[in-house]
Specification:
Elements (H helix, E strand, L loop, with lengths): L6 H7 L2 H14 L6 H14 L6 H20 L4 H10 L13 H19 L1 H15 L2 H21 L5 H7 L4 H8 L5 H8 L2 H13 L1
Length: 213
């Protein structure tokens, strides 16, 4: 892929949190459902620390969207083990405070759980659903809506976690010699740094700087 950099080199340029967001964004854009669980874990971790990063409804739609795609992916499998995993996975679809929700607000999760349980008990109905209903109701439009929510979530997180410059960062680093020695180890990673500096991205940046002088 043109412009791609080794992860070891990319980590020298981009803050770790932004790399994490970028990787998870690619996972969602590529519809790599096997990794949706990790994305959902990250979303839960962040919302535990920053509860108001999105509205309650947005968070429920985002979480349900990720979990629904994982559940339906397992439902598509012919393996009995995957179908058993669907049953144990359903409990996680209800939000922790679901007992406090009004019936109409709980409908999103409850209706989906009822649908999946019905499909588990009806092989013929499941076959019809996966062939005719799933591609429409959980197809491109569903994926686009999920991408929009993930993008909004990541964008707000980036806005909240500001990236400091080198002088601000220096204030947070201890003056202890052992700590400084630990940080200086990254300077010895000459190969990773060389790949980064020779990349087309930085050649273009330098060209822009030269032309602006």
């Amino acid at each position: 892929m043109e412009g791609a950099l080794p992860l070891s080199s990319l980590r020298l340029l981009v803050p770790p949190l932004r790399v994490m967001l970028a990787v998870m964004w690619k996972v969602v854009r590529q519809k790599n459902i096997k990794h949706y669980g990790k994305v959902e874990e990250f979303v839960s971790l962040v919302t535990g620390a920053i509860p108001d990063i999105l509205t309650n409804r947005q968070m429920r739609l985002l979480t349900l969207g990720l979990r629904a795609k994982m559940t339906l992916q397992m439902l598509c499998s012919d393996q009995s083990e995957d179908l058993r995993r669907v049953t144990t996975h359903l409990d996680s679809l209800l939000p922790p405070n679901s007992k406090e929700l009004q019936p109409e607000n709980e409908a999103l999760e409850v209706n989906f759980i009822r649908l999946v349980r019905k499909l588990l008990d009806d092989p013929k109905g499941r076959e019809h659903f996966l062939k005719n209903v799933f591609p429409v109701e959980y197809g491109p439009n569903f994926d686009t809506a999920l991408e929009t929510l993930v993008c909004e979530f990541f964008t707000r997180l980036e806005e909240l976690v500001l990236i400091p410059n080198f002088k601000q960062t220096a204030v947070w680093i201890s003056d202890t010699s052992s700590v400084l020695e630990e940080y200086m180890q990254c300077v010895t990673k000459a190969d990773d740094l060389k790949v980064l500096l020779k990349s087309e991205v930085h050649h273009g940046k330098m060209a822009k700087m030269d032309s602006s002088e």
